[in-house]
Design brief:
With 286 residues, the protein is α+β, with helices and mostly antiparallel strands. It is 41% helix and 21% strand. The protein folds into 2 domains: 102 residues, Orthogonal Bundle (Arc Repressor Mutant, subunit A), CATH 1.10.10.60; 155 residues, Multidrug-efflux Transporter 1 Regulator Bmrr, Chain A. It contains 10 helices and 8 strands. The relative contact order is 0.14.
């Protein structure tokens, strides 16, 4: 099954079960790829999270119901998963800009999000700079936080983690410790083995030989074959652009698949917001 087919199968499942309380794990299972990689690919290729897609589609259908029948708002709210009319009205106004009552009386415009169909452009007009490298096991030292992927807390938690590290001196400390096999500050993604893993660890670390200091931890990165992609440009846009091309162009056409080892983003020293900033994405492949 191709990337496109995998994602579309998961989207079709969401559409068939929009009125049910489905979990991210249920959805990802349909794609036959791990929860983390499904979540990452979906967000990058659609520019929204899975939760946001479900919310938008449910509120779109709720607007149709309001304009077509006389069911009570409380009944429509319950149908689309809202416990109270107040919560439903708040979410409805946030999406449509008008209240459910105004939608029923045709006052104002409604915003419709249609069923998603994944279409990937494989022209590859812009070349991707990458290399395939075999590397032995190495150690990284840094800080770690664990996140649930079920409620998408990782999408909010990881940027907060970076903001803290960049303001409390931890990033400078890690750069000073960087004496290992990879040069730069690392964002390391570690998921449990198996496609049904529901949590992940995220490390901000540096490749380091030696014992960690008291307030830091160490992790062994296993020997792997890595696809290493160059990223040129200011953060975060340049990094997101390359990730999107990896999932949208490279994986569908390269013949490689994600291996089960941790993947990494590698940040060099310097001003990450400058147009000439250099960074890398390291993905273990098979």
């Amino acid at each position: 099954m191709t990337w496109v087919e995998s994602l579309q199968k998961a989207i079709d499942y969401m559409e068939e079960h929009l009125l049910e309380n489905i979990s991210l794990a249920d959805i990802a299972k349909q794609s036959n790829i791990s929860l983390y990689h499904f979540q990452r690919a979906f967000t990058l290729l659609t520019d929204m999270s899975v939760g946001e897609y479900l919310r938008r589609r449910r509120l779109t259908l709720a607007a149709h119901d309001l304009s077509k029948n006389n069911n009570k708002v409380i009944d429509i709210a319950s149908k689309y998963g809202y416990e109270t009319p107040e919560a439903f009205s708040k979410a409805f106004r946030r999406q449509h800009g008008i209240s459910p009552k105004e939608a029923r009386t045709y006052e104002g415009k409604l915003k419709s999000y249609n069923r998603l169909a994944i279409q990937i452009n494989l022209k590859g007009a812009e070349p991707m700079q990458y290399k395939i490298v075999d590397k032995e096991e190495f150690q990284v030292t840094g800080i770690k936080e664990s996140f649930s992927m079920m409620n998408e807390e990782n999408l909010e938690g990881i940027p907060k983690m970076w903001r803290k590290v960049n303001t409390d001196g931890t990033s400078d400390k890690l750069f000073d410790l960087n004496n290992g096999a990879v040069k730069g500050l690392l964002g390391v993604i570690v998921t449990e083995s198996g496609k049904e893993a529901k949590s992940m660890d995220y490390w901000i670390a540096a490749a380091h030989k030696g014992e960690p200091e008291d307030d830091l931890e160490s992790l062994k990165i296993p020997a792997s074959t890595w696809a290493i992609f160059e990223v040129h440009g200011a953060m975060p846009d340049a990094m997101q652009k390359v990730w999107k091309k990896i999932y949208g162009e490279w994986f569908p056409s390269s013949g490689y698949e994600n291996a089960s080892s941790p993947s990494m983003e590698v940040y060099s020293e310097g001003d990450a917001y400058q147009s000439n900033y250099y960074s890398e994405i390291w993905i273990p492949v098979k």
